From TrEMBL:
Keywords: Amino-acid biosynthesis, Cytoplasm, Histidine biosynthesis, Isomerase. This is 1-(5-phosphoribosyl)-5-[(5-phosphoribosylamino)methylideneamino] imidazole-4-carboxamide isomerase. It comes from Bombella pluederhausensis. GO terms for molecular function: 1-(5-phosphoribosyl)-5-[(5-phosphoribosylamino)methylideneamino]imidazole-4-carboxamide isomerase activity. Its main location: cytoplasm. The gene is hisA. Its EC number is 5.3.1.16. Pathway: Amino-acid biosynthesis; L-histidine biosynthesis; L-histidine from 5-phospho-alpha-D-ribose 1-diphosphate: step 4/9.
Amino acid sequence: MTQIAEGYRTERLGHTISEDDLESLIESTTAAILSEGVFDWHTPPESGVLRRFFEGLLLVPDRDVFIARSPDGSICGAAILAHAAHGSEIYGTSASITAFFIVPYEQGKGVGNLLLSALIERAQARGAKALDCRVRETLHDAIALLHNFGFTHWGTHPYFARIGDRTVRGLFFSKLLVPADRAMQWQPADMPVTMSHHEPEQTMTTHPSLTLYPAIDLKGGACVRLRQGEMNDATHYSDNPPAQAKLFEEAGCRHLHIVDLDGAFAGRSANVKAVEGIIANTSLPVQLGGGLRDMKTIERWLEAGVSRVILGSAAVKDPDLVRQAARAWPGKVIAGIDARQGRVATEGWAEVSELTTTDLARRMEDAGVAGIIFTEITRDGMLEGLDIEQTVALAQHVSVPIIASGGVGTLDHLRALREAAKEAPGITGVIVGRALYDGRVSLPEALDVLGGSC
């Protein structure tokens, strides 16, 4: 490894940062963005955006911000270590490096070694058994650093990032932090012991399965389905949302899609009791949308057990919130893009903007969302089929996963989406609501068509 120059040091920041250090951090981040892009920015945002980003990040539980200092005390690098959410049974054994940079004028002095060592030590101290990292394939120095520290390259994302009009692949790395015999104790029972880290890439099918998300739309504490997004055209299905969620779980579903319709119109969470009841009554991962308009509300639901939050109106009206949330909770923020004939709708579909779906999708991709749910409102609840053409176009213009929604009424509609996904592999799932409640589509048959788990 490169010899570390004398006088350089790292430290982990607390919940506050001095004004001088904040200015130094903003300056070094801007230099790193201009050099190779960090924190998912390729061009530096206004200093006020970076200021709010770092101030907010320091207040987020289970996120550690590390900085590297040069001999004169100025900040010359930074990194973010994300720990598994408290109480997570699935991901509680791993931590992730979500950001890492050294300013260009301090590279080659061993500062990266110093910073990465601090991250590994902290992850081990927090009980992590593995440390994960993903990096663009164009960042050769970062890749070399990971190799030097014994990280294993186990997979490649073909549509990881867009830089200008160019698509860049992403490389996935992991490092085991405990002896191999201890790792065996938490290996999933159905995973062969001899499975190679490279095997997922080698066995990837050319026709990937799609995930089915059963929908629970909440209005007045009950499960309903709207037609074309009209609140006064709702069909009532159940007075007991937790029981409905349990039925989906018992039928073999592995995900739930929940929308607080009243919250979407009011701009704040409204069906709190119903959502909390669903979370308590099932063990399924829940993605929740409707009325999530600030960091406090997002944090409240993630801490309550929601797996992912869906930001819809905020994606149009408060993109800084989306960017801040996506960086604070990597992989837990997805954008909901609802459109009427190609134009984005907000406020529970009550307002239509001049923004096109493609423009907003690209903005959300740049903001760092983990995926996009696309709904053509004119088809929602009508059982006449998805808008395949718009869904495919969206998947071909961005690199983040696309979940289709709005209009599924028959198995043929799911078959059409599966065929479309062969040409647009960015399509990864579909939300089904009314067709399941009405019995037009059965879960076993839907799973068979989609070729994956519900």
